[in-house]
Each structure stands twice: as structure tokens, then as C-alpha cells.
């Protein structure tokens, strides 16, 4: 499973990249808005920093024609752009139209396996189920993710599953066990995977260090 960074902050992306964990970048309108009004300028900075990685940016238009026009513009920000389209009826039209002109899309804000199937059949390169928010509407996020992975394999599509809205560090392991190809997490969530266990991990590391020094060992 690949990890994408769910941030548009360049310092955070540099740190995540230095750990050897980053394979792509996802953003949404909220994330981009935190970096300033000019979203295209922010996207170009990200693509300059990580030119070989897929970079995701989401349309804000509500109708399919507006989504298509925004998608075309987003696609000019770099050579590996992916346009995020909401999983709505208008979004399905936009996904189909953008696919015809060679623009990759990610269907986002998916809460059910049926939504994921329709978006895949419409031509989405990726589907992004919200595993965390899924619980709030009466579904099991992990169970729905498993269903989506199974359904898309059965349907024999090329669509990749990108698990989004992960809320707790251990959920990352649960997501990996579903067979999803990608998970996207925030900078803080990536830090928390090891950071939450730091007190006990630190205890063991300190004990090794003290035993080593006490016996005057060296390499």
C-alpha cells in the first residue's frame, strides 16, 4: 500500500518525503485555502517540489460543465495532476467527460460501495472512500472499504482505491488489511503513528543506550 500526504504545506511535504514514506499528495479546497488565495500557484509549487508524484486537487463547481472547466485548468498545474470530483450525479458526468480527453480523476466524498462502483464505471482513475466520516452515517468505514476493494476487483476495473479521512493511527493498519492500494494521511497523523507509542518506545531505546554505555561497548 502506498501513502499519500494529505497536505499542501511544503514544509510538511518535505518532512514526509525525507522519511521515505511519500508516494503522492492529496489536497481539497480546505487544505488549499490554508496556503493562500491562489490555489494554482500552490499546486505549481507542490508539483515543482515533487515533480514525479501524482498531485490531487478538487473542483469546487457544482454543475458538471463547471467541474469540467475547473478540471481542465487544474490539469495544467503539472504533468501528474489528478482532478478530484465529488461522487454526485453531476460529478459522474464530469468524470466521464474528463476521461474522454485523457484527464485522470478521483471520485471523492464516497460513503458507500455502490457510489464507488458507479464512479469507477464512469471512468474514475481513483475512488476515495471516507472511512472516518462513514461511521457517522451508520456504516462501518473499514467494512465499506473492504466491499469496495472486492467489488472493483470483481468488476475488473483499473480504478485504484484511495482510503481517505483516516482518523486514528491504528486505522492505517486496518486500511492496509483491506487491500486498498493507497491511503492518504495528514502530516500529524504520520507523526502520530510512532509518536503515540513514543513513551514506551523511548523506554526501550533508553534502556538499550544505558546498557551499551554501562558496558563501554563500541562498534
Automatic annotation (TrEMBL):
The keyword Zinc-finger does not apply. Coiled coil: none annotated. GO terms for biological process: carbohydrate metabolic process. Gene3D superfamilies: Aldolase class I. It holds the Pfam family TAL_FSA. The keyword DNA damage does not apply. This is Transaldolase. It comes from Flexilinea flocculi.
Amino acid at each position: 500500500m502506498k501513502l499519500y500526504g494529505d497536505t499542501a504545506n511544503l514544509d510538511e511535504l518535505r518532512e514526509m518525503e525525507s522519511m521515505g514514506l511519500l508516494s503522492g499528495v492529496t489536497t481539497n479546497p480546505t487544505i488549499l485555502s490554508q496556503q493562500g488565495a491562489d490555489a494554482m500557484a500552490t499546486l505549481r509549487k507542490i508539483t515543482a517540489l515533487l515533480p514525479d508524484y501524482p498531485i490531487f486537487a478538487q473542483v469546487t463547481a457544482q454543475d458538471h460543465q463547471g467541474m469540467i472547466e475547473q478540471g481542465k485548468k487544474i490539469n495544467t498545474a503539472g504533468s501528474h495532476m489528478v482532478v478530484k470530483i465529488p461522487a454526485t450525479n453531476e460529478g459522474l458526468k464530469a468524470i466521464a467527460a474528463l476521461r474522454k480527453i485523457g484527464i485522470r480523476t478521483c471520485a471523492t466524498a464516497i460513503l458507500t460501495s455502490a457510489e464507488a462502483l458507479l464512479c469507477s464505471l464512469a471512468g474514475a482513475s481513483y475512488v476515495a472512500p471516507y472511512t472516518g466520516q462513514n461511521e457517522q452515517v451508520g456504516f462501518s468505514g473499514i467494512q465499506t472499504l473492504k466491499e469496495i476493494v472486492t467489488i472493483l476487483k470483481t468488476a475488473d476495473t483499473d480504478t485504484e482505491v484511495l482510503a481517505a479521512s483516516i482518523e486514528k493511527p491504528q486505522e492505517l493498519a486496518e486500511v492496509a488489511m483491506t487491500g486498498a492500494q493507497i491511503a492518504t494521511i495528514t502530516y500529524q497523523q504520520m507523526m502520530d503513528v510512532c509518536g503515540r507509542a513514543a513513551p514506551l518506545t523511548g523506554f526501550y531505546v533508553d534502556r538499550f543506550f544505558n546498557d551499551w554505555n554501562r558496558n563501554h561497548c563500541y562498534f
